Fold this sequence. Notes:
Layout: E1 2-5, H1 11-14, H2 19-23, H3 31-39, E2 44-54, E3 57-71, E4 74-86, H4 95-109, E5 114-120, H5 124-131, E6 135-138, E7 142-146, E8 159-163, H6 169-179, E9 184-185, H7 193-200, E10 208-213, E11 216-226, E12 230-238, H8 244-254, E13 259-263, H9 267-270, H10 272-277, E14 281-283, E15 288-294, H11 305-310, E16 314-315
Parallel strand pairs: 4-5, 9-16, 12-13
Antiparallel strand pairs: 1-2, 2-3, 3-4, 5-15, 6-15, 7-13, 7-14, 8-10, 10-11, 11-12
Helix pairs in contact: 6-7
Amino acid sequence: MRILELKELSAELLAQIPSLPALDGDPPMGIGQIRAARRSGLPYSDYYAVYAVEDGRLIGRVETSWFPFTGPLGRQTVVGICDVLVRPTDGRKGGATALLAEVHRREAALGREWSFLWTHRTWGAHRLYERLGYADVYSPPLAIRAVPRRDGPRRPAPESWSTARRTEAPVLEGVLAEGTRGRMGFVPRSPGSFSARFRLGWRSPRNHRLLRSGSRVVGYAHVVPVPPRSTIVTEVVLTSADHAEPMLDALEAEAAGRWLMFETTTFVTDQAPLLTRRGYEIHLSTHRVMMAKRLVEAPAGLIDPAAVGRDPAFSNHRGDMF
């Protein structure tokens, strides 16, 4: 088995790239889409990914990104393991272990102190990551409620509620920057992240709602209707906690007659008292989990991922998951 990076792959191996995500139930992503993603400004590592090759076949790959991670004492760049994929027919050959070991080697050589990844506690991969030295450091909360139908929609007055347009990506970015200022976690998010995701088709502006107070946008939510009777909200960001109740009013009006579920957003922990008063069932952790592994000993010790994950100032939303 050889471990290669993207620029080392032959044309024959490049042609095999789309099948790897497809085997995991994701859309195929070929070299053209990869190049577009790398040009987008999203924070991929310089080498983008490493690939396991055996007998002229790609049998697995790991993608990587470099993110800022802010703790109480400062900020440092960490590596995010974005995706670990191995062909199911090659799952017991040590490919995932070899790929991750290569990433750890590269990142330690660059002086990266921490490696992060997201997984599920119930997946077999979780046990592999534990054997490689990763530990659980955070699990996103969840809040759920069946919202009753109403005679008429409840509108957030004097706030207004609208669907975002593609051209308002910078507005979303500004709300996120203001709403997470002084908080900890994977902040600040990379510049242009909303525009990049819209352009690549990974997100739609139609799923983003803007809350305005007068002419000023004071919050946004990422809303995903799930037929037949659910609405899932994966991000809620506010410039001030004063806008939490109008935001919830607007989301409940949109979800009237359906289940409304908040997941992967620290809006749940930020606004737990409000959600409790409204009758939401709150779970402070789920099967999703963020894991971290120390790669090198650093004298600065700017971050402790487990401590940051427990801190009320920790900020996390679906766009911070990789």
